[in-house]
Amino acid sequence: MAIVFRSQEVKSTILDPRRDFAPVTHDMEFRYDPLTGRSSRLAHFGAIRPVPLNLDDYDGENKGFCPFCPPNLEKITTRFPPELVPEGIIRRGEASVIANIAPYDAYSGLVIVSDKHVLSLEDMTQSRLSDALAAGLDFLCRVKSYDRGMSYTFMGWNYMPPSGGGLIHAHIQAFGSQNPGNLYMESLQASNNYREEFGRSFWQDYLSEEKRLGQRFLGEHDGISWFVPFAPLGIIGDVAAIVPGVTVPESVSPDTVDALASGIRRLFNYYSASQIYSFNASFFFAPDKDADFPLQIRFSARTFLNTRFFPPDTNFFQMMLQQPMCVIRPEEIAREISPYFK
Prior knowledge:
- By secondary structure, the protein is α+β, with helices and mostly antiparallel strands.
- The chain has a single domain (about 55-340), classed as 2-Layer Sandwich (HIT family, subunit A).
- The protein has helices at about 70-75, 125-145, 180-200, 200-215, 255-275, 315-320, 330-335; strands at about 5-15, 20-30, 40, 90, 95-100, 105-110, 150-160, 170-175, 215-220, 225, 240-245, 280-285, 295-300, 325.
- The protein has a ten-stranded antiparallel β-sheet with strand order 4-5-6-8-7-12-13-11-10-9, sandwiched between helices. Strands 1-2-3-14 form a four-stranded mixed β-sheet, with no helix packed on it.
- A hairpin with a 6-residue loop joins β2 (about 20-30) and β3 (about 40).
């Protein structure tokens, strides 16, 4: 086994005017992703906390025009061409999948989670989550069936304005692509390299080591492993899941959809209790069913830094250095969230 959790501790000493200019030493840490080697910067511990959002500000008379609300969804939203989706719109329970009027890729769908304009985390019931995930998977399966040369499928979710979500009405983006992004490709290539070098699956070794250490592993429910990543992407930390044995959208069973929804529901219970109101999420699949790259889910909590100027929680580090920054240690996040995954 060659799983290495590499980190580098750094200290900085200042003369602090709050302590009559006495020397004060601050601890920082650089962590390196065990798969890709990408670094994350951990610093400024405890300085950023989730900022509450008043969801009433986004509902009722304040919402303005919304293309995803009835009856607009039926009347004016974009539909898929009949050769891809004969019915034009995919429906599953409360969820609908429409074509993105401003597509980001060759195949670009929007999963509208519900008719309800503002869905709080409490409103994201397991049945709603299951319907939304199933609808998105249906779209991805149709893409793979229609265009067998389309290698990559994935979904992304920007929930509420701190995440970059431009529309409040809850929706998940689903893609068929030949260019799924740098981090996805780096992870896939590094996973292949690990198998070639050691003759083993990185993901099996990684989960085994996280379970053995017990510092960040949250639990395994219905075959899905939940954990806090060692090298976070979000400024107030991440939660991730791996689904062994599931690689492509076609291999996701209804039971797995329900299990995923149940796990996400546990996470949302933690978010609600911690006053986290926004997140980014990703769902990455392998390019083919035989690839050593199980379905991976990742949630990064997001926030404004304050509600006076509404500054985002991304800055020079993330944008110009392409280096994630986090103000809370993953092990602390794991201690806080683990009771929700018991």
